Amino acid sequence: MAKMVGMNVVVKQGWTKKAVALLEENLTEEQYKAALNEHLSFEIDSAINLRKAREILMRVWYRDTEGVEKLQAEGRALAMKYPDQLTTINWCMTALVFPAFADIAKLMGKMFGFQDVITTTQIKQKMFDEWGETGTLQTVVAKIVGTMREIGGITSEKTGRQEAASIQVNNEEVVSFMLRVAMTLDGSSYYAFSSLTEFPFLFPFKYRVTKEQLMQDERFTLSTFDATLCVALK
């Protein structure tokens, strides 16, 4: 249950844009924290909720998480370089830091494979089946789904009913980042080339991958196994 801790407030995309913009100022951690506090205080009256939102943003965009430091550094650089790709990058960056976000995204991706609309209640029940029903899990699922909506990965025309967004990603640098995040989080040693556009975790995003793209990217290795082209991370 420890991995559920952390995503305890809905994080608005506008706050994320500010967190990314502050990166360009090369602030110390204390300066960055103070600047976020000032920005968030315009919208958040509760000191507790302000602290929660600030800590989430700092964990994603400023502090390093053991084991994924290189991916985080790349994601921050990409977010500054390609602000129009923030939805995709933010989705991946949040999942790197908060395993519960990644797990719920993967679950939802599988569910969307069978139905166009899924309810928050269905998501909660699936998570209860895996971790057991607790008040903490109830809250965390609601906050993560709300954050996914803010990021732009899902839409909700009716309360509690989620539909997958359809976001085209053509930027090869961002596609490479997405793939490496998905492969890192999934944890398998290699993947069939044909499966690289089928990660449930990346359900809101539509993208293509070419063999040439992977061959030119030294962070991937390609090999053939039983006549199947396979891809792994170096």
Structure described in brief:
The chain is of the alpha+beta class and 234 residues long. The protein has helices at residues 13-23, 29-40, 47-61, 69-81, 86-97, 99-112, 120-131, 135-151, 172-186, 211-215; strands spanning 117-119, 154-158, 161-164, 167-168, 191-192, 205-206, 220-225, 228-233.
Your description of this structure?
By secondary structure, this protein is of the alpha+beta class. The chain is built from ten helices and eight strands.
For this entry, give a set of tags.
8 strands; 3-stranded antiparallel beta sheet; 234 residues
Helix-strand string? HHHHHHEHHEEEHEEHEE
Shape, principal axes of CA atoms: globular
Q: Kindly report the average pLDDT value.
A: 93
Q: What is the distance, rounded to the nearest whole angstrom, between the alpha carbons of the first and last residues?
A: 31 Å
Q: What percent strand?
A: 5-15%
Number of helices: 10
User: Major sheet: order of its strands?
Assistant: 1-3-2
Low-confidence stretches: none
How would you summarize the topology of this molecule?
Layout: H1 13-23, H2 29-40, H3 47-61, H4 69-81, H5 86-97, H6 99-112, E1 117-119, H7 120-131, H8 135-151, E2 154-158, E3 161-164, E4 167-168, H9 172-186, E5 191-192, E6 205-206, H10 211-215, E7 220-225, E8 228-233
Parallel strand pairs: 4-6
Antiparallel strand pairs: 1-3, 2-3, 5-8, 7-8
Helix pairs in contact: 1-2, 2-3, 4-5, 4-9, 5-6, 5-9, 7-8
